User: What shape does this take?
Amino acid sequence: MGIYREIFKLCNEHGIDFYSTLPCSHNIDFIQQLEDFDGNTIREDSKSLIHIPLVREESGVSINAGATLGGRKTAMVIQNQGLGNMVTQMLSLNSKLEGSYNIPNLLIISHRGRKEEKIEAQKPVGSKTEHILELCGFKYCYVNNKSDLEEFRTILRSYEKGLNVAILVKPNYEKAPKRIENNDTSYRKLNKINISGDRLKTSMSRYEAISIVMKKLTKELVVANLGHPSREVYHLKDRERNFYLTSCLGHSYTLALGLALASEGMDQKIVCFEGDGGLLMNSGSLSIVGTKRPKNLILFLLDNGVWGSTGNTKTYASNGTNLSSVAHAHGFPKSKMMVISEKKELERNLTYALENEGPFFFHLIVSDHYTKMPLIPYSVIDIKNRFIKSIGSNL
Ligand SMILES: Cc1ncc(C[n+]2csc(CCOP(=O)(O)OP(=O)(O)O)c2C)c(N)n1
Assistant: This one.
């Protein structure tokens, strides 16, 4: 039995019946079990299990606090990148500090960015994870293998006494992370508000969509989102003018926005790739784009309906949430927005967007097809330096 299955078993024994989750490629096993049990009772004396897939980790702190007030025993299953984003909520709702509500929580954290980590951008948060937990008053232990589970039992007893607790689970780097099966063709439903298209079929993959865009580019600057999209951009057309943002989920479009605002009027187009998971996490900042409307920004939302880079668990975009309607509601002009699920249509509209004033929002409906891609070989500092050099910026 894998380590996450053992952890789930122990949580069941201790009556944890309310979970909020956001995937890491290493905790998919746990999330799948929760999906299987959602709505069912695990023990005779327990209420039915509730699983809430999150769109951003910090909301999980308040969702769990509310559920605790409502009589549930809660846990969060997350990656430590998300832990960083939770600090204000943990200090205000969980901790014992003066002014905090001191509502206990249990965190099951995939501990990325340790010594063995291959993704460099995981390191900053990885190296500060214990500090964050200490800052927020969480008692924690490491679970590297099954022999550490006894300590987890002790931690669970502390949680029962009202303490904030966490376990730091070591990723199994030797084994390829689990993935949920992908499809070459997807059928997608979008809640229809303003922007055309409600039931869509697509056989365009994210890789193919990126390929069409990258082929057309000449001097445009590109900002690509973390995980597989950045790797695909690198693989398809590496150039100094590509900025691979290999951390900061949901923030490639805000970084691109800053760049676009700084270079407006300089005959410089900014092309940005963002994922549906990322945009759901940070959709509020679309209101800045919708208000400032930088003419030189072209945003490509690669909407595959899943957290693709971490194993293909579904996002709410697969369940109707229409992110182009969200962007429109935030002020994006309808005349510059497109919902596209076909390659030819993308090619045609891309030419127009490259030659005309934006901002443009391409809502690309793509399949959840996955192709294994090697990591980008550059350090994050190299990515930054060559990008600055290529645009002649004096940063
Ligand atoms: C704050 C935070 N939470 C979780 C993660 C783990 N993570 C890395 S990539 C990713 C999936 C991104 O999904 P999406 O934006 O939809 O893009 P896709 O990979 O599907 O193209 C997740 C959850 C992270 N890096 N940061």
